[in-house]
Amino acid sequence: MNKKIDIVYTWVDWSDSEWQKKRIKAYNNLDNTSDLSDYANVDGRFRDNQELKYSLRSLEKYFPHHGNIFLITDNQIPDFLKEDSGITIIFHNDFIPNHLLPTFSSRKINAFIPFIEMISEDFFLFNDDVFLWPYFSLDDFQVEEKTIYYFSSEKDKHFTESLSYSDYTWKILKEVYPQYKHIDSIPSHTPKIINKTKYKNIQAEFFTYFDKLSHQIFRERESTAFLSDLYWRWMIHHKKWINGWHKWLYVSTSQWWYDSLLEQFGALPFFCINDTSDNNSDDVWLLNITQILEKLFPEKSSFEK
Fold first, then answer.
1. Cis? peptide before 269, omega within 30° of 0
2. pLDDT tens digits, residue range 2-12?
3. Domain with 201 in it: what CATH number?
4. 301 within some domain
5. Beta-strand relationship, 130-132 and 270-274
6. What's the confidence (pLDDT) of residue 96?
7. Residues spanned by the domain of 237
8. 121 occurs within a structural domain
9. Nearest-angstrom CA–CA distance, 157 and 286
10. Is residue 192 part of a domain?
11. CA 162 – CA 38 distance, rounded (Å)
């Protein structure tokens, strides 16, 4: 961690008509949709509220000493990016076998990311809805040579589905490690430090479950999130990491009034705005997202046109 750490974002342009056709076709071709997890194919799963643009603004301003930036997309490029932005764009078919595509499951996409050779051995995985504040520091993620994983204390209806896959992870870890003690919470949308070698070892140990996940097109109920759930639970069980419970803010679009973010600016190292609204895109909650983010991060980044 003395070296600069790479940043990896995942992003989708849900308004892309060709992508929408591909999504509809993939869903209609499913033999059985009853296996899908809750909210596997709702718009909120894919909707773009310009979060990536503002996340990059926050990254450049409050964590300028990062390594390379990688953007994982499905053959899409954000229209606000400059051609010479310096961000490396990687398409799904660059690192996921073609016979496993298309996919609309972030769990599956994330599970393959540590196999991308050009990404550094240790890297930060960011959702595009993670935003950094002035007190952000790598020290928030390390103590006594261990990594801290942060959990959300917010609970809403959408956590039901997340806790369901958490329970599935509990089941498969308990089978291998009878003394395993489960943490009844989820890390939600936080910056996640990943070590590629350790991840590959865990992936090999649980390859049967990885293989099952790799064939899923949309999120399914009986699957584990390898990178954002199984990986860190395994690391905590083996006392390589510790868990944290505070120092950040989880904002749910279905619950929050965003003006409260303005009042808390700078008091925490980072926050996320998770799109949990199943309403139309002109819903007032969603329209507020861009307005509030513009107030928080008004200065253009060097990545923008």
1. no
2. 578 999 999 99
3. 3.90.550.10
4. no
5. antiparallel
6. 98
7. 6-296
8. yes
9. 18
10. yes
11. 9
